[in-house]
Design a protein that fits this description.
- It is a single chain.
- Helix content is 18%, strand content 31%.
- The chain has 223 residues and is an alpha+beta fold.
- It folds into 2 domains: 78 residues, Immunoglobulin-like (Sandwich); 136 residues, Purple Acid Phosphatase, chain A, domain 2, CATH 3.60.21.
- The strands form 6 sheets. Strands 1, 2, 5, 7 and 11 form a 5-stranded mixed β-sheet that branches. A 4-stranded antiparallel β-sheet has the order 4-3-6-10, with no helix packed on it.
- The radius of gyration is 18 Å and the shape is globular.
Length: 223
């Protein structure tokens, strides 16, 4: 496959592009070529400092789902309007929504985020939610995204044990529902002078609700 990482049709060099197994970098014109691994699900980038990927409801779309027969994948980026060397990172975890009533209480958390934005108008604010986004209720993902998006802050994510899909023999199929909504479960991005690496360490062992904290060799090899 091939494609281009670009800003207003101008190619961006030295951007890392990956299928989750191997990494390449874009050339001086922003082009890349990569032969995807047979088990790859996405093609995605490590967003360079100073730029932002597309977003949908404040979910960063740094990834594209691979499609059979498609060989060209472009990544148009936009300039970060803020100085990303002056950043503020919000770290959240375990909202574990399991019924709609939970969102009423969480609205107060989002109100706090809005107040934080007003307090630091000159900062580049982003968030990372460290898993258990829902409490084994993937049908609530859209409501969760809708609630968090009210803050107007881009949020990166990774899965927790309550985001797993059970019924498989091992961990390989356990992140299907998470990936459908939020993309790859291991990735990286750059913000200012910081290189963020996000890894899924929830390893499903083939029995419902059973898992261990473990990073597999595939992820280490990618890293």
């Amino acid at each position: 496959m091939e494609g281009k990482v670009k800003f207003q049709e101008v190619g961006l060099p030295n951007v890392v592009v990956t299928d989750g197994y191997q990494c390449v970098t874009t050339d001086s014109d922003g082009h890349y070529r990569l032969t995807p691994h047979q088990d790859a699900k996405f093609i995605y980038i490590s967003t360079p400092a100073g730029y932002l990927p597309a977003e949908e409801m404040q979910v960063p779309l740094f990834y594209i789902l691979l499609e059979k027969g498609r060989a060209h994948y472009d990544f148009p980026l936009r300039k970060n309007p803020q100085d990303d060397t002056r950043q503020l990172l919000l770290v959240t975890a375990d909202p574990q929504f399991h019924k709609k009533e939970n969102f009423l209480r969480y609205s107060g958390v989002v109100d706090d985020m809005l107040q934080l934005k007003e307090t630091y108008p000159d900062r580049d604010i982003l968030g990372i939610d460290c898993g258990d986004l829902v409490g084994d209720k993937p049908e609530l993902y859209p409501l969760y995204v809708e609630q968090v998006s009210r803050a107007g802050i881009p949020f990166y994510r990774l899965p927790g044990n309550h985001d797993l899909q059970y019924g498989g023999r091992s961990t390989e199929t356990s992140t299907k529902r998470y990936e459908k909504n939020f993309g790859p479960d291991h990735y990286s991005f750059n913000r200012g002078k910081i290189h963020y690496v996000v890894l899924n360490n929830v390893f499903y062992v083939g029995r419902d609700y059973f898992y261990i904290g473990y990073i597999d060799e595939k992820t280490f090899a990618w890293l």
